[in-house]
Write a structure and sequence with these properties.
The protein is an alpha/beta fold and 427 residues long. It folds into two domains: 205 residues, NAD(P)-binding Rossmann-like Domain (Rossmann fold, 3-Layer(aba) Sandwich), CATH 3.40.50; 206 residues, Dihydrodipicolinate Reductase, domain 2 (2-Layer Sandwich), CATH 3.30.360.10. The chain has 14 helices and 20 strands. The strands form four sheets. Strands 7, 9, 10, 11, 12, 13, 17, 18 and 20 form a nine-stranded mixed sheet that branches. A seven-stranded parallel sheet has the order 3-2-1-4-5-6-19, sandwiched between helices. β9 and β10 form a beta hairpin. α3 crosses α4 and α7 crosses α14.
């Protein structure tokens, strides 16, 4: 397996570091628009895992054009293209991988477009629809596009598959729940607003109409931040208020698993929700560029520039990849499942994985949210390389056997695994 890793930002950086601890592949090409970021992670690998450095190389890429992805994949003979950049680039990287006759994997799917006249009741184009619409092309090519293989979506979908296959005979609800007690502080120790993940992606998923699935109704949408509930998270996190947020799992799970209801709720907190609502009110969540005046030049005159408001917000906030030293706490991604157990009795369980920032910083110099996101694609790539997982077409994590994934994830590192135990609670 030769891996073209597109993106060396927070998640791509963490994924490259994780791959440096494994030996299932022949070579990894770390590519980024900012080549120095790709070179920087290779320098880290050389210092921490020098024996792995020869299996990595750095390249420049402009991933906005499919032909650029295709050319770089062909140059290195890449057999799989791993997309680790923002979902705005999904279409070009996805197509570029197919044109290069390579497999493809991502952690965030093609973007949604709200319904033009009834956005808070009726879905428009759902997350991943653009990719699933092209499944036949991938099947005919004999190639696999494994989409939504991060933490959420990704590990959450693996948990849902495991519950469906091994714990339940009938499922009432599969509810993905994400909560944390993370705190970010400035140099003076004061708590600050600093999203632990891409603000571009955060705005997209949090302000779009949330998607819900019900067996008798199909997919429908609701108001942003609707149906608040207090959910008790493990790993020392405790109770967190969670609200409906648009997320890939609700688009993925019903395509592969049988459940009466599928939801995604995120523990955002009142301050975070307030900031997002303010950005929306001011139009700072918009993607389309607006004309703004530039700073005065040497002649004292102002010019004009076209700037995306959302890109501006991203530019003034701290880079999530740099927050690790200022962050404390734990993040938890899990799936709450209710229904009838294999024994015919009512059952309610919570399957989860928790990631502690102190541990991820100590071992990988990566903050816990991006490191946890990078864990799943590393495992999935290894299972594909070993032939344990296989397939063609456009598939989600639910299309594969969950047990090998969870076993490899939890197996101690000394025994060839990733040493990441996952939690199981009967409720």
């Amino acid at each position: 397996m030769k891996i073209l890793l597109v993106g060396a930002g927070g998640v791509g950086n963490a994924l490259a570091k994780l791959l440096a601890t494994r030996d299932f592949y022949e070579h990894v090409i770390v590519a980024d628009y900012d080549t120095s970021r790709a070179e920087g992670v290779l320098e880290w690998i050389a210092g921490r895992f020098p024996e792995a450095r020869a299996r990595f190389s750095a390249e420049h890429i402009d991933a906005s054009a499919p032909e650029n992805v295709t050319a770089l994949a062909k140059k290195h003979g890449a057999t799989v293209v791993m997309n680790a950049v923002e979902p705005a680039f999904v279409q070009s990287i996805f197509q570029g991988a197919l044109d290069a006759d390579a497999d493809y994997m991502d952690m965030a799917m093609s973007l949604s477009i709200p319904h033009p006249t009834d956005p808070y009741n009726t879905p428009g184009i759902k997350l991943g629809d653009w990719q699933f619409d092209r499944a036949t092309e991938w099947e005919k090519a004999g190639r696999l596009a494994l989409i939504g293989m991060g933490v959420e979506p990704g590990i959450s979908d693996v948990f849902a598959k495991y519950a469906s296959d091994h714990l339940f005979s009938d499922i009432d609800e599969i509810g993905v729940r994400d909560g944390a007690n993370l705190v970010v502080r400035d140099d003076e120790g004061k708590e600050i607003f600093a999203p632990s993940f891409s603000i571009w992606t955060t705005i997209e998923e949090c302000l779009n109409p949330p998607l819900i699935w019900e067996k008798d109704r199909g997919w429908f949408t609701t108001e942003a931040f609707s149906e608040p509930e207090v959910f008790m998270f493990p790993a020392g996190i405790g109770p967190v208020e969670c609200v409906n947020v648009e997320h890939e799992e609700v688009s993925l799970v019903p395509r592969f698993l049988n459940a009466k209801r599928v939801t995604f709720k995120y523990g955002l907190g009142a301050e975070f929700i307030g900031v997002l609502k303010t950005l929306n009110l001011l139009g700072l969540d918009k993607v389309a560029p607006v004309s703004v005046r530039t700073a005065p030049g040497p002649d004292g005159k102002r010019g004009k520039a076209e700037v995306s408001p959302r890109d501006l917000v991203a530019a003034v906030l701290p880079d999530p990849a740099t927050l690790g030293d200022r962050m404390t706490g734990t993040t938890c991604a899990g799936v709450w499942v209710t229904g009838t157990g294999k024994d015919g009795n009512p059952r309610e369980v919570f399957l989860y994985h928790a990631s502690d920032n102190e541990w991820t910083m100590k071992n990988y110099d990566s903050q816990c949210v991006v490191w946890q996101t990078a864990l799943a694609p590393a495992i999935a790539l290894e299972l594909l390389a070993q032939g344990v997982w296989s397939g063609t077409g456009v598939l989600g994590p639910e299309a594969f056997d969950a047990k090998p994934f969870l076993e490899l994830m939890a197996q101690p590192e000394a025994e060839g695994g990733y040493g990441q135990a996952w939690g199981f609670e009967e409720r």
